[in-house]
Amino acid sequence: MSRTEEIKGFQVIPVTLSASRYFKTEEPIKHYMYAKKHQSNTDKEIAERSIFLINPPINASLSTIRVFFKKISPESLIENFLLNIENLDYDINLTKLTSDLYDDEEINTGLRLPSGSSLVVFVDKSAANLALSKLKKYSRSKDLYEWNSKSEEPASVRFIKKFKSEILPLEETSEFVSKELQEFENRELESKKNLQEMKTLVDEDGFTLVVGKNRKTKKGILGKISGATDFHKQDTDKKMKKKEKQDFYRFQLRERKKLEMNELLKKFKDDQERIKELKEKKRFRPY
C-alpha cells in the first residue's frame, strides 16, 4: 500500500518512536508530522527562512529538532525552534475588561502559533528551501527516522510540572500586583489629563467642544465625534441620493407627458382625417 506523501499542501513526515516504559508494544509506533513553507504577512523575513511543522513529538525541542534535521538535511543549519504544543497560558487582560479608562489598543507583535504546531527557523532562505526539498525526498523513503522518546513522561506529569512552573512566589506575586496597580493609576491620570485637554479644544469653525460628564476618556469623546460625523455624512448622502432620484423622476415624467401629448395629437389628427373622409362619402353620422 502506497504511503500518502502530501495532504492539502502539507508534506507528510513519518517517524518512528523509540520504545520506552510508556509504550509497551512490540510493533514500532509511527508518528506523523506535517510540514510546509511558512507564510506570514507580519514578518516576511522570518517566514521565508522557516518551515511550519504541525504535530511534532511531545519531547520536541531545539536539540531534538536539530538532531532530526542533521539526519535529513545536514547542510541546513537551524537557528531557532518555536513550539506551542501545550497551550496552558490563558492570559486575560482583566483591566481592559473591567475599566473604561483603558484606552491603549492591544498590539501583539509576538509570534502566535496554533496549539500543537511549531516553527523551525533556519539561518537563511536557502537552508530552509534545501531542508524542505530533503523532507519531500525523505517522505518517499522507506527508512524512517527513529525519534528518541525514552525521556517522554505521561501527560499528567507534564501538566503538573507546567502548572507549578507558572505559580509565582509570594514576593514576585506582590511585586507583580503592585506594578499592575501603578500602571492602572498612571493610565487613569493620563485619561483625566486628556479629558481636560479635550474641554479646551476648539474646532476649525471656532466652536469649543462640549464634553459630557459621562465621557471619561479621550477615545470615547473622539468616538462620539466620529460617530456624529459619520451619521451626518450618511444623512447628507441619503438626501443627495433622494434628490437625484426625484430629479430623474421629473425628467421621465416630462418625457412621458410629452409622448402622451404627441400621441393624443396624432390620434386627434387621425380622427379629423377619418371624419373628413366620411363627410366626403356622406356617411358621417355623429349620433
UniProtKB/TrEMBL annotation:
One of its GO terms (cellular component) is UTP-C complex. Belongs to the RRP7 family. Keywords: Coiled coil. Residues 166-287 form the Ribosomal RNA-processing protein 7 C-terminal domain. Transmembrane segments: none annotated. This is Ribosomal RNA-processing protein 7 C-terminal domain-containing protein. Residues 6-162 form the Rrp7 RRM-like N-terminal domain. It comes from the Eukaryota. One of its GO terms (biological process) is rRNA processing. The keyword Coiled coil applies. Residues 254-281 form a coiled coil. It holds the Pfam family RRM_Rrp7. It comes from Wickerhamomyces mucosus.
